[in-house]
Amino acid sequence: MTRLSRRSLLKMASAAGAASLIAAPAIAQQPVKLRVAKSVTTSFPFAGLELGAEAGIWKAEGIDAEIFSFAGDARMQQAFTANSIDIGLGSGPSMGYASKGVPAHAVAALANKPENMALVVGKTSGITSIDDLKGKRIGVTTAGSLTDWLARKIATEKGWGPEGVEVVAMGDGRTRQAAMETGDLPGMVTATEQAFQIQDDGQGKVLMTFGEVVPHFHTHTILAHDNLIKNRPEDVKRFLRAWFKLVRYMKDNKETTIKSVARTMKLSEKVIADAYDIELGMMSTDGQFDPQAVQVIRASLKELGISEVEPNIDNMYVKGFVPVVLN
Predict the structure, then answer these.
(1) Which residues contact 300 (CB under 8 A, 6 or more apart)?
(2) Which long-range contacts does 154-160 make (Cβ < 8 Å, 24+ apart)?
(3) Are 125 and 176 in contact (CB under 8 A)?
(4) What 8-state DSSP symbol labels residue 123?
(5) pLDDT of residue 20
(6) Residue 305 · residue 225 · CB < 8 Å
(7) Confidence grade of residue 302 (pLDDT, cut at 50, 70, 90)
């Protein structure tokens, strides 16, 4: 009887063990590590990277996001070339660097016409109108960047010719602001938030925003390294799904978004709150490219010297990743 009982117990234990293996949930998959960069720190949409981490959106989508920041598109493209980043949040003109051999392509539109970009002048500049800018120095991030193109667009629209304003590449917005405060730089193109913060601080005046000047445009795009696109397309899709869930979160959680973006950009919550509707209104919810916007950007690449000729559209972005459809 004793031997039978032991044998029975062993069978019962074995059966229970097998059942537990069948019933146990699958081991959680390790999160995918992605090195994600933003081309500038002075961008409301780009501050979504930190908000996504705080809100647990990257983690929920199985992404371990390592966040980097650069002082302009050109610097970020150098990081792509060095294979130091996987995903980049850049400007519309950054789509053109692929034609120069940079191993990265746009995979989604992030934001449309540049309502969130402004021209601000220093309080000691003596400039009171757009006409006063003729022949003056305007600070931008880097050569070939969105800020560079917008500064030159002023001269084009005014009929001043390509040398109508002197464009000066100075990197990060805070560096340009410091030069403007000392009087070394009359004005600068920057994010609307920073421009209005400068105005609120009594250090300058906002002359204009660029939404009406360029109605068809992609102010920001999402780029991916060619290796990621070729070898790990599902991870590109994973990031885009997470990003557009973040956009939905930003729309549904105004107060939380304002606090996080203000903290990341080191600006007042008042300034971010004032810009909230503008920023969210121009952000894409599915990443679709606007053919007219792409054509405008294509033309801008030659104007900026990024490309000697207008590049083939097929070399500006990779199809198949958008639209992103969320449940």
Answers:
(1) 92, 93, 96, 149
(2) 154/119, 154/130, 154/213, 157/213, 158/130, 158/131, 158/134, 160/134
(3) no
(4) T
(5) 39
(6) no
(7) confident
Six-digit token string for 145? 């960047």
The residue whose two tokens read 């007042």 is 268
Mean pLDDT over residues 166-182, rounded? 90
Torsion of CA 146, 264, 77, 299, to 10 degrees: -20
Give Cβ neighbours of residue 78 (< 8 Å, ≥ 6 apart). Answer: none
Mean pLDDT of the chain: 89
Q: What is the pLDDT of residue 3?
A: 43
**Per-residue DSSP letters for 52-73?**
HHHTTHHHHTTEEEEEEE-SSH
Q: Residue 301: pLDDT band by 50, 70, 90 thresholds? A: confident
Tokens of 204: 């300058």
What's the pLDDT band for 24 if we cut at 50, 70, 90? Answer: very low
- Other CB atoms within a 10 A radius of the CB of residue 157 amount to 12
Backbone φ and ψ of 64, nearest 5°:
-100, 95
Location of structure tokens 């991030």: 141
The residue behind tokens 């539109």 is 109
Q: In whole angstroms, what is the distance from residue 187 CA to residue 176 CA?
A: 9
